[in-house]
Design a protein that fits this description.
It is a single chain. The chain has a single domain, classed as Helix Hairpins, CATH 1.10.287. Helix content is 92%, strand content 0%. It is built from 3 helices and no strands. α2 runs antiparallel to α3. The longest helix is centred in the middle third of the chain and has 81 residues. The radius of gyration is 39 Å and the shape is rod-shaped.
Length: 165
């Protein structure tokens, strides 16, 4: 009888086999739940990263188009500057040759030159604004590239963590 009662008490620890199974089952449930949560989180981060990558590519493409437009405007502005210089030289030559006869035409050309110079100033101001915008876009793109690198690192860490589980 003493042998039967000592086998029932299981010694000093008092641990039953059902307690061990309950502990193993609980541990298994926690591991499965953690794996499912990290996998969902990883999928969510991947989708967010892909959306960010698409937006970044669109901004990059738009910036290239914008930069091409600014370059074209600068070329047109340079052509207008040359045209203004040519008009001024032509005006001076004509003016020296026939001062009295061309007084009226000279005034019209001077107005035209003033209008062209004013248009030239406006175009230069617009170009300067666009150059500032391009600089801001470059800075924004650099920040986004750094953020993407951080997200890549985080996703890689989550994937490693997920593979360990």
């Amino acid at each position: 009888m003493a042998a039967a009662s000592s086998s029932r008490s299981r010694g000093v620890t008092g641990v039953r086999s059902t307690k061990g199974l309950f502990f193993i089952f609980t541990l298994l449930c926690v591991v499965c739940l953690a794996t499912a949560l990290t996998e969902d989180e990883l999928v969510k981060h991947r989708k967010t990263f892909e959306k960010g990558q698409q937006m970044f590519d669109e901004v990059k493409a738009n910036m290239k188009v914008h930069q091409a437009m600014v370059t074209q405007l600068m070329m047109e502005n340079d052509a207008q500057s040359e045209e203004i210089k040519d008009l001024e030289q032509a005006n001076r030559k004509v003016h020296q040759a026939m001062v009295t006869q061309l007084m009226m035409a000279n005034d019209a050309q001077s107005e035209e030159i003033k209008d062209l110079e004013q248009a030239n100033r406006k175009i230069r101001q617009e170009i300067n604004k666009r150059l500032v915008t391009i600089d801001e876009l470059h800075a924004s793109m650099n920040r986004r590239e750094l953020m993407q690198e951080e997200w890549k690192k985080k996703i890689k860490i989550l994937e490693e963590y997920h593979s360990e589980l």
